[in-house]
Design goal:
3-stranded parallel β-sheet, Rossmann fold, about 55% helix, 2 domains, mainly alpha, about 280 residues, N-(1-d-carboxylethyl)-l-norvaline Dehydrogenase, domain 2, 14 helices, single chain
Length: about 280
């Protein structure tokens, strides 16, 4: 996701873009678009007034921000750091507090929708932070997304994104069950999806995850995997515990994700849980 978002910053924006990744391949692919390659995070800190992060998990964000040679240590006063990753709200709030001591602005701005949306620059971006910072970075966010929602203060963007994913995962499991029941009852799966999408059961998950993945048993490893889905669901269930909500549906989905990983499906696109519902794994 980070690679294509970076590409859109160059192709749709007018700012000079400097990129850094621990892997050389994404930077090599971005070089022809005009992305300049940084040698290290220290290099990014010294060259950039606005830093966007797109990282796999909370531990990576913490290390990049707070670790030795990280952003907190090296960014200049007045730098803006925007985290596009999905991490626990508590971490976003912690980073906001620690960066503020050094006069560095921080906000969380996790993204939603598919990889296709990331490529097209039509992501949904959920912003948690000060309005002034949002308005300063809005032109850059608009290169990556078409819907930018100010969710509130630090950490609220993460809350909304994480709950978005929990609801999506819950829905996908329900769709998998629906397809299994319908097919065993003698209904053509494609007809079932097409018909449901015309009524009150319609949803983004039905049209995309069912239509593109479940109907064709297409669960590529380069898509959002069960491992990543379980990470986000774990964050959601932590919020549920903190707020005193049972979240039984989410816990059931967690059970399926864990079973998928035990079955060797962890690296596949997460709607692969349909195989478990069907009893095929």
């Amino acid at each position: 996701m980070g690679e294509v978002m970076c590409r859109n910053l160059v192709l749709k924006g007018d700012a000079e873009v400097v990129g850094y990744d621990v892997r050389p391949e994404p930077l090599a692919r971005l070089a022809p678009t005009g992305v300049q390659v940084a040698e290290s995070m220290s290099d990014i800190s010294s060259r950039c007034s606005i830093v966007f992060l797109s990282l796999p998990a909370a531990e990576h964000v913490r290390e990049i921000c707070l670790g030795d040679g990280g952003l907190l240590e090296n960014c200049a006063d007045g730098t803006i750091v925007i985290d596009l990753s999905t991490v626990p709200p508590a971490l976003a709030q912690e980073l906001n507090t620690k960066f503020a001591v050094r006069n560095i602005a921080f906000a969380d701005a996790p993204v939603a929708r598919s990889r296709h949306a990331a490529v097209d620059g039509t992501l949904s971006i959920m912003f948690g932070g000060d309005t002034e910072i949002l308005e300063r970075v809005r032109p850059h966010l608009a290169c990556m997304g078409t819907d930018i929602t100010h969710c509130g203060g630090p950490g609220t963007g993460q809350v909304v994104k994480i709950l978005n994913n929990m609801l999506l995962f819950d829905t996908c499991l329900s769709i998998a069950e629906t397809l299994a029941i319908g097919e065993r009852a003698g209904v053509d799966p494609q007809l079932l999806v097409d018909t449901l999408s015309k009524g009150s059961a319609d949803s983004f998950a039905l049209r995309t995850h069912a239509g593109r993945a479940m109907l064709n048993n297409n669960y590529p490893t380069e898509a959002f995997s069960v491992h990543y889905a379980l990470k986000d669901l774990t964050y959601a269930l932590e919020i549920a515990d903190e707020t005193g909500v049972e979240a039984r549906a989410g816990k059931l989905v967690r059970e399926f994700f864990n079973r998928a990983i035990e079955a060797g499906l962890g690296d596949q696109y997460y709607p692969v849980v349909k195989k478990l519902v069907e009893g095929n794994s």
